[in-house]
Amino acid sequence: VSASREPRKLVLAGDSKLAEMAFEYFSRDSPYEIVAFAVEQEYLRRDSLFGLPVVRFETVEERYDPAEHDLHVAVAYRLLNRVRARLVAEAKSKGYRLASYLSSNARVWPDVQLGEHHFIIEENVIQPFVRIGNNVVIMGPTASATTRPSGTTASSRPTSSWPGRSSWERTASSASIRRWSTTSRSAGTAGSVPTW
Amino acid sequence: MSAPKLVIVGAGGFAEIACEYFTHDSPYDVAAFAVERDYLERETLAGLPVVAFESLEEHYDPATHHVHVAVTYAEVNRARTRLVAEAKGRGFALASYVSSHAFVWRNVELGEHCFIFENNVVQPHVRIGNNVVLWSGNHIGHHSTIGDNCFISSHVVVSGTVEIGENCFLGVNSTLVNNITIGPDCWIGPQVTITRDASPGSVFRPARSELRDESSLELFGP
Fold it and tell me: Which among B104, B142, B157 has the least Cβ separation from residue A21?
């Protein structure tokens, strides 16, 4: 979208536990900078979350210009995904570009077709010739880890509980979560797709 | 700075595995194994001495040696729990292992004396108590809490916002749906799916698989 190294500004719709998760993942593992949460009037219970404002979704565009902000709807599967789908459609019609999250610890084959507004977390394996539609959430993979190539998963250790040794720490930092490269594809798409 | 020294309590399969992981994927150097006198059957393991746990500090100074108790879930985790408490009471610092191939989110709260194998996913806002073993490949969903002394065997799915009490055992491939509470001391068998709260001390046996009368040779030919 732009060659700028400025992070894109992001509004998260929702303030539930899923939004708390999305806040973590977008903050630490995406090019976005989260600036606010937006919640429908009926569910507006607080003014702030994680030090950021929580505003009315119905009028979010008055405070956060769609020309300068992307939006992600961090709502789970209420009404069999209909709530999320409705909010995504409304955000799009307000003029927001939709933001996606793809974990740097997911393995997605390069030719996979990903729709807009997806949320795909760590350790997922998405194989060749897969097509994924719009507004798809893929949470934790379950028991099948058999297709994972060995030695490619990354680690993020809680440093406070771990005694350090310089040789080990070098290994650990090289294996820790990769930030998306600023030279990767636009922030609105999948960003850098890790390859096998 | 030299590597911290470690004594592994136990001399069974888990102890052998722990020796591998601590040696090749942690800052520790394993110095010895320690076993309770009743179970002392050999003098060495993996080229290292095996000594009596009861007199461990006579050979290995608690000021310079850490301890990890590599004992599995005997007596619904009570054997490991007792040995950890004894080692701590005798002044040994407790060591944890977190695989460099585990995915543990930055704000996870992890207690002391944990062993986390490769390919675990521990999501944001999870709290894990003391003396917890996560064997390989589990999914520990966001905002869940795992109590002290639990043993989560392998490829278990703990969905988001689950509370697991202390001392529980979760068998391979077991599944816990979100927003439930598992009381302490539960034993959840392999492949069991739990969809509602479980009272303390509940035991869930897996469904029996069906054994057919025909052999495979009869079904598919010799």
Answer: B142
Query: What is the secondary structure of A59-100 as a DSSP string?
Result: GHHHHS-TTTEEEEE----TTTTHHHHHHHHHHHHTTPEEP-
DSSP designation for B23: H
CA distance B177 to chain A (A): 12
CB contact under 8 A, B121 and A155: no
pLDDT one-digit tens code per residue, B196-216: 999 999 999 999 999 999 999
- Say what the pTM is: 0.79
Q: Rounded to whole angstroms, how far apart are CA atoms B188 and B196?
A: 13
Average pLDDT over residues B82-107: 96
The DSSP secondary structure of B72-104, one letter per residue, reads: --TTTTHHHHHHHHHHHHTTPEEP-EE-TT-EE
Collapse the DSSP code of A49 into the 3-class scheme (helix H, G, I; strand E, B; otherwise coil) and give the result.
strand
Interface probe, candidates B23, B99, B103, B172, chain A, greatest A C-beta count within 10 A: B103
ipTM of the complex in this document: 0.78
